[in-house]
Structures are given as structure tokens and as C-alpha cells.
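Quick one: sequence plus S-adenosylmethionine SMILES, need C-alpha cells.
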Amino acid sequence: MTTLKTLPENSCAYEEYDPKTLKPVNNSTFTRLMELGWSKEEFNGKSVLDIGGNSGILSLYAHNLGAKEIQYVDVQVPLVEFFQSVVSEHDLPIDIARRGFLELDTKTDKKDIVLCMEVLHWLVDQGGNVADSLQKLTDLTNDTLYLETPWDVKEPSIAAKGIVMEEDYNIELIIRELQSHFETVEMVRFMSYFGAMADSKRILIRATGKRTNNSNAGADKTVMSEEYSLAPAVAA
Ligand SMILES: C[S@@+](CC[C@H](N)C(=O)[O-])C[C@H]1O[C@@H](n2cnc3c(N)ncnc32)[C@H](O)[C@@H]1O
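Reply:
Sure thing.
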């Protein structure tokens, strides 16, 4: 039996919960969960891959919403051990592994819903690039990819590091790449959970409907409704 651990101090302010009650312990965490807008209809019975899961709060939320198979991965040992202790304590059906994004296998780790939440900029910071990372995320996804990510490199947590360059990480690049892989790329909302950090512009994106030929070249040929015409209305 694993002893229930306390949340490591380097967990993010928006993913803190009480490991005994599993309740959010601050407003940022609660607000963020509500802002995600995730529903039981969307998660029920689905398999979920939570990449860079940190405290595990999004895996817990997915479980709460009825996901049937959840894989959590993160690279930081204290976080993985903390979440392992939570899952053991509550006897939850969540798989936990200390693994990095590059170690994920696009065949065996593929899931219905993939969560890449506040992790893409880390991957770029670690020497990856947006195009390759989004290609791999697409390959890992059966149905839906959720990406929550800073809008640009001015976002304080990236700017503080000063390593990621604007040409390597910007929202246009991210959206363009996503559109080449998915039919529908929704910018769901700007997240506001960092109430005190006004410069923190983070966006939640939902991508669904994987393209089969990996190209959006056919997007221009979308058949418009036959009911719609730009011809002037003829007076009756
Ligand atoms: C800002 S936190 C986001 C946590 C969580 N996804 C969320 O949105 O609540 C980023 C997490 O990504 C993890 N991480 C960083 N690089 C990673 C990598 N290459 N593979 C997997 N996880 C990584 C970090 O350890 C950290 O827990």
C-alpha cells in the first residue's frame, strides 16, 4: 500500500487539489476546470491520454466525466509518485507512467481523446518543434485533440525562460499545422484562470475530424449549401 503523498511544490497553481478529498484547493484550479467546458457526453466511455499530466488533475477530471481508459504520463518523478499515491489511495483505474512525449508510441499509446495541455511550449523549449510535435499528437489521437497553450512567446512563463523564439512558436503556426491535420479546429476560448496574471494569454483549442491525406488542400473545395447565393434578391 502506497502512502498518500502531498502535492509537490513545483505543481502549477491551476492544478492543485486535496489528495484526500480530490477537491480543488484554489480558485484558479476550479475556474480552469469549469472553463474547459468538458462534458460527460464527450468523455463517457472514451480512452484518454494525458500528456504531461503534472498533479493528475485532468486525468481525475476525465475519470469523473466517465472516461474508461486513462493513461497519464509525465517526466517529473515527484509528480508521478504523487499521482501514483493518489490513484492507489482512491483505487482509481488510471494508468501512470514516467514517460516523456518522445517515448510515446503512436501505435500502442493512441487514444480517443488526447490532452496536451500547457505542454507544447515545453516541447519546443526542449528542442522539439511545433510541426513535428503536432504531427505526433495527431498520430496519437483517434478522435479529439485538446491543446491548451500560450498564445505567443510573450506569455510570461515562456518569456521568463527567453529560449523559445517567436518564429518557432506562435499561434498562427500552431493553427495552420492543426488545420492541416484536422477538419475542425475550434479556438474554444481564452482561459482566464490566471486572474492575477493579466499578461498570461492562453488559449484552449479543440481539434477533431482527422484528415486522411494530411493536407488541407481540399479545404477550398468545401461544398457550400446550395441554398446560399450571393446573387441579389429578386423583388417578388
Ligand atoms: C505546465 S504543466 C501542465 C500540466 C497539465 N498538463 C495541465 O495542463 O494541468 C507541464 C507539465 O509537462 C510536463 N512535461 C514537460 N516536458 C515533458 C515531456 N517532454 N514529456 C511529458 N511531459 C512533459 C512537466 O513535467 C509538467 O508537469
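The first strand starts at residue 47 and ends at 51. Residues 12, 15, 51-54, 57-58, 73-76, 79, 100-101, 117-119, 122-123, 126 surround S-adenosylmethionine (CB under 6 Å).
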